[in-house]
Structure formats: structure tokens, C-alpha cells
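Renewal narrative, Specific Aim 1. Our central claim is that a sequence can be written position by position from structural information alone. The example that follows is taken directly from our test logs and has not been curated for this report. It begins with the C-alpha cells describing the chain, in the order in which they were read.
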């Protein structure tokens, strides 16, 4: 897939970008002036410069707490004024955009449900035309990279240049370790497709109550992502939304102190020499893999011809199951996970089927 050139400018003024990673923290929702101010004060003491809070909440079902609405914007104005922090909120429609701008909200984010809806994104983009406000775009709820990129493009075409992506994970049917599966390969591919776009990870919405916020945050740092947006509430047990996943400012501060932030490059000579040698070995391995795959596909085609002559189906379920079990078994003795072998052989088997399909049609 081709790379996409967005017209980008730094998300924030230099003083906010000097310290890496960029940290945004605050409650899921603004609930009261007291909750907002007490949380913000504690976060400020912990060194946080950017305060998040949801004003309008996209709830899955009615009757859940839907946010305090525009009343909360005054509290955020107070956070700005009294604590000299920047503030950011979610906007999901044109009315939200106008109200946020009227109250001097410094940064906006677009929620995962809105990103999945190009009509909503286009309306928001049109409403933002002519403004300079930075906008962060959460990934859509479904694992669709093009939909995520499409939303960023719509905003960029409306002249929004201070853009970032927020990786908050992808929903699925049924339960799993994570509230939203991280599918790291998607933000990694976003980095390749849209060079220069900052990526901020949202471990709170990836984890839900799973207690892996530190691990997810560290992984984002290991991948060289640019920032973290983490939910923090002065008293999580009383929170009106996402109570299980919010940290106290103290807990958040503890996690941030443990984080190892990695640099993109090193000039150390020994490191560079050794890295180059190892990369040469990797290149050799990869070329061997490509040659082997080509050989394998040629054999597959021959099998396709045989099947065609005998009028036998391409898909032989029992053979496929045995092959997969056998490869997983062989690989587990070599320290390769079942999951990765399964993925690789699914792809190989699919390509074999495609080749045999071609042979049969010919
Ligand atoms: C949130 O940040 O509180 C939120 C609603 O997030 P998402 O759009 O990722 O569900
Ligand atoms: Mn939330």
C-alpha cells in the first residue's frame, strides 16, 4: 500500500514537545467542578501539562451517564486559567466543535465511534476549516486502517495540519484479556503509511480493567510512539463512567516513573557495527524464505494440476488440519508461538488455494 503525504505541522508549541513522551491525562468524564479541579491539581503536581476530560460521552446504551454537557466547559476554562494546563475534549458533531472553540479548548479529539463514520468526520472537518486547533483522531472501533487514515485525510484537506492519531484498540464480539484488542500491527502500519504523523497510545481504553496499563504504555514506548493518553480520576471508585479503568493521579505518576523511554537512534559505533551485521543475517534469512515460498507455490500448482485431472476439490480439510497441527508442533519445539505459526500458515495455505484456483480455471 502506498504512503500518504499529509501536510503536517507540530501538534503543539515546542515547549510541550521537548519532553518525550507527550502525556495527556484526566478523567474519562468531567463530573463536577470539584472532581475536575481536584484531579487536575493532583495531575499538575505529577508534572502533567495536558488535561483530558469527556464533556459529551458516547455511551453504548441509553441511561448511562452521558456527560455533563457544556456546563463542564467552564470547569475546563478554570483548569486552564488557574493551573496553566492545556485542556482537551472529545467532539462528535458540529455543535461540540463550536462550543469547544468558544471556551478556548486547546486540543480536540475525535472518538472511535465517530472515526468509523465518514459523514460525521466530514461535518466536523468542515466546521474546523480556518481554525488552527490541534486534532487527535482515535482509531475507528473496527480494525480498518483505511477508515482511520480517511478521517485524518478529511481533516487535513480542511486545512487542519496539527494532527495526531490515538491508538485506543479495536472492539470484538465476546470477552478477551483486553477491553479493545490492541492489534499493534495497525498503528505500526499507520506509521509506515503516514510518515511524520504522531501516534499517541490510549492504554486505558485498550486495557479496560485488565491492569496492564503499564505493559501497554511500555510497549508503546518500545515501538517509538509519541505519547500516551491515560484516564485518571481523583477517586476512581466513584467515577460515573469507565470507573474500572481509571487510575488515581498517584498511581499514574508511579507508572510514568517506571516507564523506559527509548530513543529512535544511537551513534554508538559498536552498536551500529553489530546491528549492521545482524541485519545482514536477517536479509539473508528473508531471501531464503522468499525462495522457499516460491518453491512451495510451484509444488502447490503441480498438485493443482493433479487434482484437476482427477476432478478432485482444492480444499482437503483433513490434510489441511493435519498440516497445520504438524507445523505448529514442529515450531513449538523451536520457540515459535502457535499464534504466529497459525497466522503464517493460514496465509500460505490461502495463497496455495489461490494458485490452485488459477490452475483449475486455466
Ligand atoms: C474516551 O476517551 O473516554 C472515549 C470515549 O474513548 P473512545 O472513543 O476511545 O471509546
Ligand atoms: Mn473513557
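The sequence written for that structure reads:
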Amino acid at each position: 500500500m502506498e504512503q500518504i503525504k499529509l501536510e503536517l505541522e507540530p501538534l503543539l508549541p515546542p515547549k510541550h514537545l521537548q519532553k518525550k513522551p507527550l502525556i495527556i491525562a484526566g478523567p474519562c468524564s468531567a463530573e463536577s467542578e470539584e472532581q475536575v479541579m481536584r484531579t487536575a491539581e493532583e495531575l499538575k503536581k505529577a508534572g502533567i501539562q495536558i488535561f483530558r476530560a469527556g464533556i459529551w460521552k458516547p455511551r453504548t446504551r441509553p441511561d448511562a451517564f452521558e456527560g455533563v454537557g457544556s456546563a463542564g466547559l467552564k470547569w475546563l476554562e478554570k483548569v486552564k486559567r488557574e493551573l496553566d494546563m492545556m485542556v482537551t475534549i472529545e467532539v462528535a458533531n458540529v455543535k461540540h466543535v463550536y462550543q469547544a472553540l468558544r471556551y478556548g479548548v486547546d486540543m480536540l479529539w475525535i472518538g472511535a465511534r465517530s472515526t468509523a463514520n465518514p459523514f460525521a468526520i466530514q461535518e466536523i472537518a468542515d466546521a474546523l476549516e480556518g481554525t488552527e486547533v490541534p486534532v487527535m483522531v482515535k482509531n475507528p472501533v473496527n480494525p480498518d486502517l483505511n477508515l482511520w487514515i480517511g478521517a485524518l485525510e478529511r481533516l487535513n484537506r480542511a486545512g487542519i495540519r496539527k494532527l495526531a492519531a490515538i491508538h485506543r484498540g479495536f472492539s470484538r464480539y465476546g470477552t478477551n484479556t483486553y477491553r479493545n484488542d490492541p492489534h499493534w500491527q495497525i498503528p505500526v502500519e499507520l506509521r509506515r503509511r503516514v510518515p511524520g504523523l504522531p501516534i499517541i497510545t490510549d492504554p486505558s481504553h485498550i486495557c479496560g480493567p485488565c491492569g496492564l496499563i503499564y505493559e501497554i504504555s511500555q510497549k508503546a514506548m518500545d515501538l517509538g510512539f509519541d505519547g500516551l493518553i491515560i484516564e485518571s480520576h481523583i477517586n476512581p471508585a466513584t467515577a460515573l463512567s469507565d470507573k474500572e479503568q481509571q487510575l488515581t493521579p498517584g498511581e499514574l505518576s508511579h507508572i510514568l516513573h517506571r516507564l523506559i523511554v527509548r530513543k529512535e537512534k544511537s551513534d554508538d559505533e559498536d552498536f551500529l557495527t553489530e546491528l549492521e551485521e545482524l541485519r545482514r543475517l536477517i536479509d539473508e534469512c528473508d531471501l531464503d524464505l522468499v525462495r522457499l515460498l516460491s518453491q512451495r507455490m510451484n509444488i502447490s500448482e503441480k498438485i493443482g494440476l493433479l487434482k484437476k485431472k482427477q476432478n478432485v476439490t482444492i480444499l482437503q480439510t483433513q490434510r489441511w488440519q493435519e498440516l497445520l497441527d504438524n507445523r505448529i508442533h514442529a515450531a513449538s519445539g523451536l520457540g515459535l508461538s502457535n499464534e504466529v505459526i497459525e497466522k503464517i500458515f493460514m496465509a500460505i495455505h490461502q495463497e496455495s488455494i489461490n494458485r490452485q484456483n488459477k490452475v483449475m480455471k486455466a
